[in-house]
Amino acid sequence: MNKKIVLSIVGILTLFGLFAFATPASALTCNSATLTGTVITGTPPTHARFSYATNYNTVSNGSGITTPVQYFNTQGTFPIEQFISGLTKNTTYYYRLEVTNNYGSQNLNIRNFTTPSCPIQTYTVTANTGIGGNIYPSSRIVTSGNTTNFTVTPNYGYTINSVTGCNGNLSGTTYTTGSITSNCSVYASFTKNQPTTYTVTANTGI
User: Fold this and answer.
1) Which of 34, 40, 112, 190 could form a disulfide with 132 if both were Cys (CB 3.0 to 4.6 A apart)?
2) Number of Cβ atoms within 10 Å of the Cβ of 157
3) Phi and psi angles of residue 27, each rounded to the nearest 5 degrees, phi first
4) DSSP 3-state assignment of 59?
C-alpha cells in the first residue's frame, strides 16, 4: 500500500489585487506527487504554475522543472492543482508556486517533501511435471527482476526430456529462470528409458 506524506505549507504572496497561497502537498507514491494551492484574483488575467527540482538552489534560481501554466481570466477564488510523476523514491524535492499578473511576478517560499520507498513487487513462479519425475519446489515467490531455480529429478527408469517456461535454461538437473517480471510457470517432462536388449546366438557342433 502506498505511503502518503502530507506537508503543511505556510506562505502568502501579494501582488496588486492578487493573493495566492499553497495548500498541503501530498507525496502519494514513491514516484508521484500532487501539488495544490489557491489563487484569489483581483485584477485578472493571472497566470500560475509550480516549479520543482531535487536541489533547493535550482528552484531558487528559476531553473526548476515547471508545470503547465494555468490561466485565471476572471475575478474569484480558484484552486490550482498539478500532478507530477517520474519522481525518484526516497528523494527530497523542493518546489514553489509561481504567480504572475499584469503588475509583476512573485513566488512563494520554497518548500519540500520526500518521496517514500516503493512497495516491493513480487511474483509467483509455479512448477509442474509430467509422468516420470519431480520438480522441487512446487512454487517460489520471487522479487521483481530476480531469477530463481528449481531441481528436476527423474524417477528410476526415466530421463529428463525438457524443462520450459519463464525464459529459463537447464543445466544438469537445475533449471534457472530468466528475470521474473510477471507470474509464470515452469514445466518439466520426462522420457521413459528404453530397455536394453541383447542378442543371444545359439550354435551347435557336428
Assistant:
1) 190
2) 11
3) -90, 95
4) helix
Residue with cell 524535492: 93
The residues pairing with 20 across neighbouring beta strands, listed in sequence order, are 13, 39
If 0-12 CB within 10 Å is exposed, 13-18 middle and 19+ buried, where does residue 24 land? Answer: middle
Kindly report, residue by residue over 122-178, the tens digit of the pLDDT: 999 999 999 999 999 999 999 999 999 999 999 999 999 999 999 999 999 999 999
AA identity, residue 136: Y
The candidate with the shortest Cα–Cα distance to 110, out of 130, 124, 95, is 95
Quote the cell numbers at residue 184: 509464470
Q: What are phi and psi of 202, to 5 degrees?
A: -105, 135
CB atoms within 10 A of CB 81: 14
What's the grid cell of residue 134?
519431480
Q: Across the chain, which distance is largest between two alpha carbons, in Å?
A: 133
The pLDDT value given to residue 194: 85
**Residue 120: count of CB within 10 angstroms of its CB:** 7
Q: Which of 33, 34, 31, 35 is nearest to 87 (CA)?
A: 31
